[in-house]
Amino acid sequence: MRHLHTRTTPTPPGTGTARTARAPHPGRTRVAGALAAGLLCAAGLTTPALAAPGGVTAAAPAVRTVSPTSADGLALTPPMGFNNWNSTHCRAEFDQDMVEGIADLFVEKGLKDAGYQYVNLDDCWALPSRDADGKLVPDPERFPGGIKAVADYVHSKGLKLGIYTSAGTKTCDSVGFPGALGHEYSDARQFADWGVDYLKYDNCNNQGVDARSRYTTMRDALRATGRPIVYSICEWGENKPWEWASDVGHLWRTTGDISDSWGSMLSILKQNLPLAPYAGPGHWNDPDMLEVGNGGMTDTEYRSHFSMWSVMAAPLLIGSDLRTASAATFDILGNKEVVAVDQDPLGKQGSVVSSTDGRWVVAKEMRDGSRTVALFNESGTAQRIATTAAAVGLPGADAYILRDLWRHRSSNTAGTIAATVPAHGTVLVRVSADPAWAKNPPAVELGLEGSPLVEAGRTATLTSAVTDLGRTSATRVAVTLRGPAGWTVAATGPTTAASLPTGRSLRTTWRVTAPAGTAPGSYDLALKAVYRSPTGITADAELPVRASVVVAPPAGTSPLGDLPWLSTTNGWGPVERDTSNGEEGSGDGGTLTIGGVPYARGLGVHAESTVEYYTGTACERVTADVGLDDEKGAKGTVAFEIWADGTKVASTGVLTNAMPAQALTADVTGAQVVRLVVTDGGDGIDSDHADWADAKLSC
Fold this sequence. Notes:
By secondary structure, the protein is an alpha+beta fold. The protein is 16% helix and 33% strand. It has twelve helices and 40 strands. The strands form nine sheets. It has an eight-stranded parallel sheet with strand order 9-8-7-6-5-4-3-10. The chain has a six-stranded antiparallel sheet with strand order 11-12-13-18-15-16, covered by helices on one side. Strands 28, 30, 33, 35, 38 and 40 form a six-stranded antiparallel sheet that branches. β8, α9 and β9 form a beta-alpha-beta unit. The chain is globular and about 80 Å long.
C-alpha cells in the first residue's frame, strides 16, 4: 500500500517559481491488469527485458548472469553518501551549486575521511520531456553545466556521483519527469557517458509490469555500458526483493519511505531487522536514507537511528542539508567508530538477541571476532537492558574488553553487558575476548529506581545503584545526583564506597523536590559515579536522567484532548487534538471521522504512535471510539492498545478502514501513567491514520 497524494512545495523568495513536489510519503501511482497492458501498448512499450535504445524491439545484449557480490567488486560494504530528497525535495534550491557544495562539505567536514563517498541526485534533475532523439535532458536552470560537469566536479574531490530515475513511464514527482521503462539501455548509456557511479531506481508509474523483469532489465543495461555503477533497487519491499535481487542489484529498499519522526524510524527498523540473513557484501538490505539532522527527532533519537542503521549494515545516505547542519549532526554522522561497525568487511547484518517490552539487544558479528552490541530502548522511559558475552556469541574468557562507541572509552567486564538506557536511546558497545582486558578499568553500571515524575512542591524518592560489572574491583567509588537550579536533591544514604567487587553495588536513596510553582515539563538531572581501578586509573560513568514536572489530573471526566500529555510519538506529522492526523504540519487534519461518523473531540494520530498521560494513581477509566480515519479512503491497518503503567489493559486487534468505530474501555485504576498506543497492524505504517474519537479520562 502506498500513499497517493502530492503537495506543492513552497519556493523561497527569489528562487524562482513554485514546483509541485513529491510528498515525503511518495505518491506512487500504479495501473494493473488489462489496463496496464493497454497502457503499455498505447505507449509503444514492449516487455522490458526486450526494450532497446531508441524504442526498437531487440534482444538484450548477452550478459553473463552473476552475483554482484563476486563479480563486479562494487558495494562490498554498504554504500555511504548523501541524497538530497529528504532535505530539499523538488524545491528550486536543489541545483548544481547545492550539489557541488555538498561535495565541498564532504571534504571540509571530514565526511570523506569517515567513509562517505557518493553524492546522489534524487528526482527533479531532468526536464519533463525527452528530446527529439528520446534522450534525457538535464534541467538547464538547475544544472546549467549538465550532469557531466557535476560528475567531473564531484570526481575532482575524490568522490562519486549518483543519479535517480524510476522503473516506470514517469518518476515519482507529480510533475512527471521521464522514467526509464522502455528506455533502459539508452538511459543507462547516458548515465555512463556522464560519469555516473550510482543509480537509484524507483518504482513509480510502473504500469503493473513485473518488478523482477523491470529491475533485471536495468541491471543488464547498466552492465552493458561497461561502467561500474552501484545499482540501488527502490521498489519499497513490495515484492520481497531480498528473496530475488541479490544477483540483480547491490541494495534494495525493504520498506516504504522514511519520515523524520521517531514512529517512522521505529516502524522501518522493526521491518528491516528480521531480514538479516539476506544481507552481505554486494547485496544489502536498505531501510531508506538517514534523517539525522532534519529536526524532527532529538539528538538522542538520531544517535539511536544512526546506531541501529550501522548495526544493520544499512547503506548510510545522509538525508539532511549539510549546508545548515549543526555541530551535533556532524558529530553523529562523523563518528568513525560507529561508521566502522557499518563498514565492517565481514558484511554481517546484526541479529536480534532479545526483545522484551521495548528493550532490544541486537548483536553484529565483526571480522575480527568481536561483537558490536546495541542496547536499544524503544520505550518512552529509561530502562535497564542487559545481555551477556555468551548470549551475543563470544567465546568463554576470564574477562572481555567493552568499548563504548559513543563515549569512546574502554573498560573490562566479567561477561555482563548492561546499561540503563534513556528513553529512545541506544548504548552501542563493541565487545571482544581480548587477553589485554586488565589494562582497562572495570565497567560500572549506573541505575536509577523510582518514578522520575515529580509534582511541583512535593518530594519524590529515587534510589541509585552503582554496580561493578568488571572482573576487577572498582575502588574509591563516589556517586552524585544533580538537579536543575533551585531544586533540592539530598542523599539519605551512603554516597561512597571504598571498594566494589565484581557484581556488588553501592545503593543510595535520594529525595528530590521541585520548587512550588515549577512549570510542567521536562527537566534534566545527572547521575554520575567516579571511581578508580586497582591499577590507579580514574574513570567515571554518567547517566542522564529526564525528570518531568507533572500536574495531577482534575477530578471528574475530561476529554483527553483537553489534558496535557507527558509525551507523544507519531509515525507522520504531530498528534492532533480534536482533528485527524493530516500527516504533515500541525493543524492540517480535518474532522475526526470513522466509517462516515464525525466526532467533534478526540485525538488524531498516525501509527506508530504513543500518547502518554500522567494520572497520578487518581484515575479509574479511559473510554474512546477508535478506528481508522476516513481521510485515507480504504487504506490503512492499525491496532489500538491502552496501557496502565507497564500493563496492557485493553486492545482491539487489527482494524481496517472497512470497519466501523470500535468502543474501547480500559480500567486504569491505580496507574501513575496511562499510555495510548497505535501499532501498524503488522504491514508498515503507510496510510495508518487512526482516531481516538471522543476519548475521555475519568478520575
